[in-house]
Design a protein that fits this description.
single chain, EC 3.5.4.9, THF_DH/CycHdrlase_CS, alpha/beta, amino-acid biosynthesis, globular, three-stranded parallel β-sheet, Rossmann fold, methylenetetrahydrofolate dehydrogenase (NADP+) activity, binds NADPH dihydro-nicotinamide-adenine-dinucleotide phosphate, EC 1.5.1.5
């Protein structure tokens, strides 16, 4: 058996085409969705992420602006920029690229963004709504994973989903969304004793750790659905996930490739949240 590849790039392209139509419909009522991205400092990876977010916005017709602030920006100055954007009627979504320099509290910044413009879905109010199952902006990577599973017609309800990793941006929320979809969810992390004993029970295994090729074929149940969130470089500098793709490909039923799996879905869900937010303009 060779696992079916869950093609995030293809699903993202389909969604981009749908979004283009929605954006042109909105334009008829004089609304152009607006996304503001704030980047503090000169981190190379962050600059790359921000560029691809802006490029995607342009593709679907979302107006995006970038505020690039110096690395020594104070928390007070950053908060004043957020305040300004919170009050800008042409801006529907605000995204502050993480990580931030040490002098700035990430939590203070996340909480300063108006929940109505929190298209990353990180504000405690939106996280609370996600937990209670209310409609809200969902965090982009976890939401993209659910969309990929649904597009591949994977049965989530009743399955045992194991999530390896418990970060606030990926691990914890993806477990919650799987629970909302009626999976039985187990979380694993760096203190988990005997990881393999748990991962081999998973019908759906989500791995968001950040260690190249951590998960091998001995770690999975035959026929499992594997979602690989990791973005790492292997010994040859090639982009790879947290799962050893070549090793598990023959025993998994479905698997997300890296690149081209979860990654393209993350930006796609950000764009969807921005369009949703524009629809809420009154
Ligand atoms: P974090 O570093 O914030 O979290 C890593 C998690 O992995 C922690 O919960 C940690 O446990 C756990 N962990 C570390 N070592 C082990 C181990 N040996 N066994 C089991 N668990 C372990 O990472 P992120 O969640 O932010 O990102 C994870 C990966 O996903 C990274 O490669 C990142 O680049 C990628 N990523 C990809 C995205 C995409 O769009 N494709 C989006 C976001 C991230 P503990 O809590 O105990 O420390």
């Amino acid at each position: 058996m060779t696992a079916e590849r869950m093609n995030g790039k293809e699903l993202a392209a389909t969604k981009h085409a749908e979004m283009k139509v929605r954006v042109s419909e909105l334009a008829k009522s004089g609304i152009v969705p607006g996304l503001a991205v704030i980047l503090v400092g000169d981190d190379q990876a962050s600059q790359t992420y921000v560029r691809s977010k802006q490029k995607m916005c342009e593709k679907v017709g979302i107006h995006s602006i970038l505020k690039h602030l110096p690395a020594d920006t104070t928390e007070e100055v950053l908060l004043s920029h957020i305040d300004e954007l919170n009050n800008d009627p042409e801006i529907d979504g605000i995204l502050v690229q993480l990580p931030l320099p040490k002098q700035i509290s990430e939590q203070a910044v996340i909480e300063a963004i108006s929940p109505e413009k929190d298209v990353d879905g990180f504000h405690p109010i939106n996280i609370g709504k996600m937990m209670t199952g209310e409609k809200t902006f969902l965090p982009c990577t976890p939401h993209g994973i659910i969309e990929l599973l649904k597009a591949s017609e994977v049965q989530i309800a009743g399955s045992h989903a194991v999530v390896v990793g418990r970060s606030n941006i990926v691990g914890k929320p993806v477990g919650q969304l799987l629970l909302n979809e009626h999976a039985t969810v187990t979380y694993c992390h760096s203190r988990t004793v005997d990881l393999r004993a748990i991962t081999t029970q998973a019908d759906i295994l989500v791995v968001a750790v950040g260690i190249a090729k951590l998960i091998k074929k001995e770690d999975i149940k035959p026929g499992a659905v594997i979602i690989d969130v990791g973005m790492n470089r292997d010994e040859n500098g090639k982009l790879c996930g947290d799962v050893d793709f070549d090793d598990v490909e023959d025993i998994a039923s479905h698997i997300t490739p890296v690149p081209g799996g979860v990654g393209p879905m993350t930006i796609t869900m950000l764009l969807e949240n921005t369009i949703e937010s524009a629809l809420n303009r009154s």
